[in-house]
Design goal:
alpha+beta, Aminopeptidase, 4 helices, 32% helix
Length: 163
């Protein structure tokens, strides 16, 4: 499936907000202790958040447009040196989401290619992303595109430690 991958515009924010909720719900299903639930107003909140970065010179949001219908999006940004993360400057892919009915057709690959290209063009020496540990399908895609594992996040719930 070849879709038109283009920079997100304000008119896309409602659809992107719905995709953000889909992303939140998937992560919450993976681990409800670690990830936020998509409560009332989550789509509006997610759209407002991404609306605040679509025109940033330090970030990009691309959408997959299939005949005027947004079927996916990617959000990436330039990140400075981080002493906390023990890494130099990098591009960071924060989100990639594709509607279920458009998956396994190359849409995520096209979105990631656009984001990586933008990061490269803006001087990022490397690209980093995170993946939920149980999201094996996404990890397979990321490896196929050349990403390698470098960190493992671990979480301990303090209110449930003794159980």
């Amino acid at each position: 499936m070849v879709v038109n991958v283009r920079r997100a515009e304000r008119r896309d924010l409602e659809a992107v907000g719905r995709l953000g909720v889909m992303l939140m719900e998937a992560h919450f299903a993976f681990d409800p202790q670690r990830f936020l639930a998509a409560g009332a107003g989550a789509a509006r909140g997610y759209a407002a958040f991404l609306g605040g970065v679509i025109e940033s010179p330090q970030a990009c949001v691309y959408v997959a447009d299939d005949g005027g219908e947004v079927t996916g999006y990617v959000y990436a940004a330039l990140e400075p040196l981080s002493w906390k993360e023990l890494r130099g400057p990098a591009g960071f892919i924060h989100d990639v989401a594709v509607r279920e009915d458009a998956r396994r057709a190359g849409v995520a690959t096209q979105l990631l290619d656009a984001a990586v290209g933008w990061l490269r063009d803006h001087g990022a020496p490397r690209v980093i992303l995170w993946s939920a540990a149980p999201n094996l399908a996404a990890q397979t895609l990321f490896r196929r595109l050349g990403f390698r594992e470098t960190m493992l996040e671990m979480t301990m719930e303090l209110d449930r430690r003794g159980e």
